[in-house]
Specification:
Layout lengths: L1 H5 L7 H36 L8 H11 L4 H13 L1
């Protein structure tokens, strides 16, 4: 009668302990992995912010001005010729 009233057996079986251990390992693994990824992201973004900006060549600046429509094709060719001759 006591088995029906209080459940089967007196405690957790071996499979219960294994399932509990796996669940705890997954929980802590995911938690620590998430913290590690967050730290890595923050360190990398801080490192990238401290890098000096890359310098563009005069030809690249001129090509960007042409692409934005600040100068026309004739002006681009004239200035590019001037840059190459100097």
């Amino acid at each position: 009668m006591s088995d029906v009233m209080y459940g089967y057996g007196t405690g957790m079986t071996g499979w219960g302990f294994i399932a509990m251990a796996i669940t705890q390992l997954l929980f802590w693994g995911l938690l620590l992995g998430g913290v590690a990824l967050l730290v890595r992201y923050l360190v990398r973004s801080h490192h990238d912010a401290n890098l000096p900006p890359t310098r563009q060549t005069p030809q690249q600046v001129l090509a960007e001005r042409l692409a934005r429509g600040e100068i026309d094709e004739a002006e681009y060719q004239r200035r590019l010729t001037t840059l190459r001759s100097s």
